[in-house]
Design brief:
The chain is an alpha+beta fold and about 110 residues long. It folds into two domains: about 30 residues, no CATH class; about 70 residues. Helices cover about 45% and strands about 15% of the residues. It has a three-stranded antiparallel β-sheet with strand order 1-3-2, with no helix packed on it. A hairpin with a 2-residue loop joins β2 and β3. The two termini are about 30 Å apart.
Length: about 110
């Protein structure tokens, strides 16, 4: 996720201070979620060995499912950011997200 370790005395409001036997030993500063999504996308490109836009359709669908489980689409502009990285439209990302969801008996998607 791109967190940084800090001396506990440098901890600020959103940092997480870890304690051992009651004493603070290290502080962890996590990046903003939007920065994390960029980092996750860069990591996925490294793992696949190519820009995400060059992946085949099935692999892009798998990437979208993986990002969904990691909460990427809960972020503001998450769909747009992922769509740009994959070289597809927002509509396509929504189609990938809806592809494996259960459908109601009348053919409509079920809302949770």
């Amino acid at each position: 996720m791109g967190g940084r370790l800090l001396d506990p005395e440098q901890a600020e409001g959103d940092d997480v201070v870890l304690r051992w036997e009651g004493r603070p030993v290290v502080a962890v500063r996590l990046p903003h979620l939007a920065e994390s999504l960029e980092g996750i996308l860069a990591d996925l490109e490294r793992r696949h060995g190519m820009p995400l836009a060059r992946l085949d359709r099935r692999t892009k669908q798998s990437v979208v499912r993986n990002l969904e489980t990691r909460g990427a689409f809960a972020l503001r502009h998450g769909v747009e950011t992922v769509a740009a990285a994959l070289g597809v439209s927002r509509f396509t990302v929504y189609n990938y997200l809806n592809r494996d969801r259960p459908r109601g008996g009348d053919g409509s998607s079920t809302n949770c």
